[in-house]
């Protein structure tokens, strides 16, 4: 059974498409494991674009699968634990991927689906896209989506989404910082962003993303120490040597 599709473009951009449209791309345990594996296979990409088949981007965890696990002798605890561990691993695989991961959202993204969008480095959405963390409506607070959501939206805005479960339209999601912008065609916009990133120096992009993640949440001094060390290494790299020389000599740069 196909859970997702993978494609590599000539420019080095990797496309990963969630492909369970009948289940609204719900994140079953197998789907989460497949996503982590696909991201691992895209370690050598220049950028990654995350897409979805069908009218929904992702409806979160597979509630039918979780409910079926309650019939197990432990009431489902073991399966729930494995699923949450797989979910955390998949989200970390997005965040910690060496190159930028871009979400193209053209439908609803709820609960862990919203978490997936928030975990991406960049996200674009069509006006039809909507976002929510509706666990409270079914007695299940969206605690793991809260991790990614609170790192994108402001604290009070994130708490409102988590406490009320209300649907947030695309334009509001952009204002909250959950997506970068609202566009007529999310796929085209995401591919354009990815192509622009792929055209830059690979070492620069990889070093830059790693440095950005490393300084987040640190004290001001620690952040500058980390960023300064990254800048030194970046200056020593061929990307910067060639780029600066081309700029100073007013000639086209050579892609590294």
UniProtKB/TrEMBL annotation:
<dbReference type="InterPro" id="IPR052377">
    <property type="entry name" value="Mitochondrial_ECH-domain"/>
</dbReference>
<dbReference type="Pfam" id="PF00378">
    <property type="entry name" value="ECH_1"/>
</dbReference>
<comment type="function">
    <text>May play a role in fatty acid biosynthesis and insulin sensitivity.</text>
</comment>
<dbReference type="GO" id="GO:0016836">
    <property type="term" value="F:hydro-lyase activity"/>
</dbReference>
<dbReference type="GO" id="GO:0006631">
    <property type="term" value="P:fatty acid metabolic process"/>
</dbReference>
<dbReference type="InterPro" id="IPR001753">
    <property type="entry name" value="Enoyl-CoA_hydra/iso"/>
</dbReference>
<protein>
    <recommendedName>
        <fullName>Enoyl-CoA hydratase domain-containing protein 3, mitochondrial</fullName>
    </recommendedName>
</protein>
<keyword id="KW-0456">Lyase</keyword>
<dbReference type="InterPro" id="IPR014748">
    <property type="entry name" value="Enoyl-CoA_hydra_C"/>
</dbReference>
<comment type="similarity">
    <text>Belongs to the enoyl-CoA hydratase/isomerase family.</text>
</comment>
<keyword id="KW-0276">Fatty acid metabolism</keyword>
<keyword id="KW-0809">Transit peptide</keyword>
<dbReference type="InterPro" id="IPR029045">
    <property type="entry name" value="ClpP/crotonase-like_dom_sf"/>
</dbReference>
<keyword id="KW-0443">Lipid metabolism</keyword>
